[in-house]
Amino acid sequence: QFFEVPFDSNMNRTKNRPLVRGQISPLLAVCFAASCGIPGIALLTLGVNPLTGALGAFNIFLYTCCYTPLKRMSIVNTWVGAVVGAIPPIMGWTAATGSLDAGALLLGGILYSWQFPHFNALSWGLREDYSRGGYCMMSVTHPGLCRRVALRHCLALIGLSAVAPVLDITTWTFPIISLPINLYISYLGFRFYRDADRSSSRKLFFCSLWHLPMLLLVMFTCKKSVLEKEDKGDLPGGNHEMAMEIRLP
After folding, report:
1. Which of 17, 132, 186, 214 sits most deeply, having the most CB atoms within 10 A of its CB?
2. Hey, where are the domains in the chain?
């Protein structure tokens, strides 16, 4: 927001932000950001593990130094922003496991794909605002691509859900139970692609709000347990001791 004050002042959805209205000074905003970001990275590095801390630092850099300036330069910003949104759940996985394995990448992939129907549908109703602010969004400069990409990633969620049991992250019930909600968001994605109006974009956006938590809840419910993996010999050597401890009364 520090970098975007002149542009945010031209948009209805951002013109009341504290920096735009002068309720806080730019110096205070930067100091507050630094006082949250630097100790946050240090806590993740020292209190969790260096990998999680490094991912946190990289995400702050990606958001501030890449995504933010790209918003006024190229529609590539949406893809970069999707990476920014996918990293936090990956950090949760690395915090729990200490490794950047297939489960972390799959979880990040689900969050990555989900963001396109979510944001593209949202941005469709804000095209005038983005245009006034001078932001390069697909909905403004490439409306056809905006709708195609949203539909494409709705369908990608079906494929990603099917990959989970192949990678031994969930049971085979996960892609089956999640199929109805994935098909529903894909149907709304198709309606958005076909109709290209505010009504279809709103329906897709509001569906995305409940779709993600429900999909993750189903994924959690269908996850493979540590004991199942240990019985199959799929756990790394260091985790067999943990599985044995779980079995003890």
Report:
1. 186
2. 4-225
**pTM, to two decimals:** 0.83
Tell me the per-residue pLDDT of 98-136, one tens digit each, with 9 for 90 and over: 989 999 999 999 999 999 999 999 999 888 888 887 888
**What is the Cα–Cα distance from 6 to 15, expressed in whole angstroms?**
10
Distance of CA 208 to the CA centre of its chain: 12
pLDDT (0 to 100) of residue 233:
55
Residue 156 CB neighbours (<10 A): 19
Q: What percent of the chain is predicted at pLDDT more than 70?
A: 86
Residue 247 binned pLDDT confidence (cut-offs 50, 70, 90): very low
161-169's contacts with Cβ under 8 Å and 24+ in sequence apart are 161/110, 161/215, 161/219, 163/106, 164/106, 164/219, 164/222, 167/102, 167/103, 167/106, 168/224, 168/229, 168/234, 169/102, 169/103, 169/106, 169/223, 169/224
Buried b / exposed e along 39-72 (16+ C-beta atoms within 10 A): eebeebbeebbebbbebbbebbebbeeebbebbe
